[in-house]
């Protein structure tokens, strides 16, 4: 008689598959809403039951053993089958209900998505939203993400995409700073100014500032006097008179309304890619996903409220 697989071993297979796909127990734990130690122990119990080592472990990473690579492919097939069962059941349910897992970059999530969530829940009170903010480009399918909002386009044929709005960025300064300094007329004039730049947390690189000059987009790296790794902090430093900084219009808009920032080199502002929603092909019929994607169309109208503010300020 074939032994039936237990819940504990199924849990171990799921934990193993996520850890193998994401490269660490910490990342797997984040995607599964568990602690890293719980994921580690679950994988260890699976290894003990199978009598093989699935990972070669170091202090920094996990590497699959040959046996682990074979089992990983099989585990992914199992999880894909489970995913199809779950989505078929969800599609049969007409009313949105239950969990929806959404991911977005921190500034977009904090400024645009999060403030709108209460309105979404008024429309769909049975939906529970799990919003995860960060700049790491997750594998939606592997991590069980229902909808991702990102800037740019990932090369993944398993995803459906819908463009929401342009990602418009421009240079800004405070009126107090410009009162004591000559206003730049062209991007090359920035060499004579104090600049506030952004540093990517993931790579440590500083932002190259894009400007549209004629039919081309040029990029410069300013001589920054202040460098910070948070987009909101860039706007805060600039609004306090710290110099000229570059920012997406959705972050700058509240400062523009209050008169704390004004556009600089506005005629050279660039639409840098698009803010886009993505969801797995397997979620096409999911009522939660359909409801949330439809709602995104409401909070990203054309033109957006923040770009309307930007256009109205000289």
UniProtKB/TrEMBL annotation:
**Alphabetical UniProt keywords:** DNA-binding, Transcription, Transcription regulation
Instruction: Give the matching CDD domains.
Output: PBP2_CrgA_like
Kindly indicate whether the keyword Transcription belongs to this entry: yes
**Mind listing the GO molecular function terms for this protein?**
DNA binding; DNA-binding transcription factor activity
Q: Which domain of life is it from?
A: Bacteria
InterPro entries, from UniProt?
Answer: LysR-type_TF_proteobact-type, LysR_HTH_N, LysR_subst-bd, WH-like_DNA-bd_sf, WH_DNA-bd_sf
**Limits of the HTH lysR-type domain:** 8-65
Kindly provide the name given to this protein in its UniProt entry.
HTH-type transcriptional regulator TtuA
Species name? Rhizobium pisi
């Amino acid at each position: 008689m074939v032994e039936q697989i237990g819940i504990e071993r199924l849990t171990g297979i799921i934990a193993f598959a996520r850890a193998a796909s994401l490269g660490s127990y910490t990342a797997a734990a984040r995607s599964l809403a568990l602690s890293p130690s719980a994921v580690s122990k679950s994988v260890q119990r699976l290894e003990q039951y199978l009598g093989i080592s699935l990972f070669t472990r170091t202090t920094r990473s996990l590497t699959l053993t040959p046996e682990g690579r074979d089992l990983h492919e099989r585990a992914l097939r199992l999880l894909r089958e489970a995913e199809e069962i779950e989505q078929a059941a969800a599609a049969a349910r007409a009313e949105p209900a239950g969990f929806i897992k959404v991911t977005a970059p921190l500034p977009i999530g904090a400024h645009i998505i999060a403030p709108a969530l209460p309105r979404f829940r008024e429309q769909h009170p049975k939906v529970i939203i799990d919003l995860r903010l960060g700049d790491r480009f997750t594998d939606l399918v592997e991590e069980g993400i229902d909808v991702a909002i990102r800037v740019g386009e990932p090369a993944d044929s398993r995803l459906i995409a819908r463009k929401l709005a342009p990602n418009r960025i421009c240079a800004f300064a405070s009126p107090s700073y410009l009162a004591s300094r000559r206003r730049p007329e062209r991007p090359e004039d920035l060499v004579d100014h104090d600049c506030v730049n952004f540093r990517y947390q993931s790579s440590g690189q500083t932002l190259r500032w894009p400007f549209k000059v004629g039919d081309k987009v040029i990029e410069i790296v300013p001589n920054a006097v202040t460098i910070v790794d948070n987009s909101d902090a860039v706007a805060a430093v600039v609004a306090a008179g710290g110099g000229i900084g570059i920012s997406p219009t959705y972050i700058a808009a509240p400062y523009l309304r209050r008169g704390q920032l004004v556009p600089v080199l506005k005629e050279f502002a660039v639409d840098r890619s698009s803010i886009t929603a993505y969801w797995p092909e397997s979620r096409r019929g999911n009522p939660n996903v359909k409801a949330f994607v439809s709602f995104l169309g409401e909070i990203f109208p054309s033109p957006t409220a923040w770009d309307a503010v930007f256009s109205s300020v000289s």
